[in-house]
Every structure is written in structure tokens, then in C-alpha cells.
Write a structure and sequence with these properties.
There is one protein chain. This protein is an alpha+beta fold. It has a domain of 60 residues. The protein is built from 4 helices and 4 strands, in the order H-H-H-E-E-E-E-H. Strands 1-2-4-3 form a 4-stranded mixed sheet. Strand 1 and strand 2 form a beta hairpin.
């Protein structure tokens, strides 16, 4: 049993993060200004917003679309494949969702900024650990969204 006799890992000071290019912040601001809301009632989904998001991703990241293959699953889920050099290795999937739940109307007056204003939190107020971006899909935990996706 190695649990008790394993040597501790060495401790190193983390290197400082490089500043993000202005284009990254601009893209992020544009992305979060598109109201990709997934209400519980699937008949209220604004598919136009999801199509605008797709168009945004295509225009903001042209090299991704030139160099990676994209599969569109049930209209609004995207799988980007970046082929590795060794097909014998198992693949790695990085996932995220780009939709949000609706704002409770009664709480809107409590917001200090519009929910889709594209506002960026100053870097001094963020302590990032890791950021990965690979696939986008509406929230799979919302049963109505999943049902709507599976029938459209």
C-alpha cells in the first residue's frame, strides 16, 4: 500500500498568468451579451439567440472552424474534434454549457447590471485557476431542454 509511504509532491510557486489579449475580452463580452436562455417551457426557447451564438462563434474563431471538424448535434450542441497524432490514445473531452436559466422577474430590480450587458468583471476581482473551451451544449440537467433538443 503506497498511500502511507509515498513521498510528498514538491511544492513550487505558480508562474504569474499572462494578460489576456484584448480580443479575448471582447469576444467574451460579445458571447455573454447573447441571451441564450433555456426556460422550463421549451416552447419559449428563443432559437434565434442560439443561432446568433453559433454565428458569433463562427465569426470570432475562424481558425477553429478551419482546422477542427465540427458536428452540430440536435441544432444547438456542438462537438469540435481536434485530431490527435496518436489515435491509439483515448480521447479527452472538455465540456461546458452556454445557456442560462431565466432571470426571476421579481429579482431584476436587484441586479446592478443588465443580465446580458456583456459586462466584464475586472481582472483584479478574479482569481482564475484554469480555463478550457472545447464543446458547447444547452444545459443537460434541464429535462425540458433535453426533451426539446431530442425532438427538434
Amino acid at each position: 500500500m503506497r498511500t502511507f509511504n509515498a513521498k510528498p509532491w514538491p511544492s513550487h510557486k505558480a508562474a504569474p498568468f499572462a494578460a489576456l489579449p484584448d480580443s479575448a475580452l471582447s469576444h467574451f463580452s460579445r458571447a455573454i451579451s447573447i441571451p441564450t436562455v433555456s426556460p422550463q417551457d421549451p416552447s419559449r426557447i428563443d432559437t434565434g439567440s442560439f443561432l446568433r451564438y453559433r454565428s458569433f462563434v463562427e465569426s470570432a474563431y475562424p481558425l477553429i472552424h478551419q482546422r477542427l471538424s465540427r458536428e452540430i448535434v440536435t441544432n444547438f450542441s456542438y462537438i469540435y474534434t481536434w485530431k490527435g497524432t496518436d489515435p491509439s490514445l483515448p480521447p479527452l473531452i472538455l465540456m461546458a454549457h452556454y445557456d442560462v436559466v431565466p432571470v426571476e422577474i421579481s429579482t431584476e430590480k436587484l441586479w446592478t447590471a443588465p443580465p446580458f450587458g456583456g459586462n466584464i468583471i475586472p481582472a483584479s476581482q478574479i482569481s482564475p485557476v484554469s480555463t478550457s473551451l472545447a464543446s458547447y451544449l444547452p444545459d443537460p440537467t434541464n429535462a425540458n431542454v433535453a426533451r426539446w433538443i431530442s425532438t427538434n
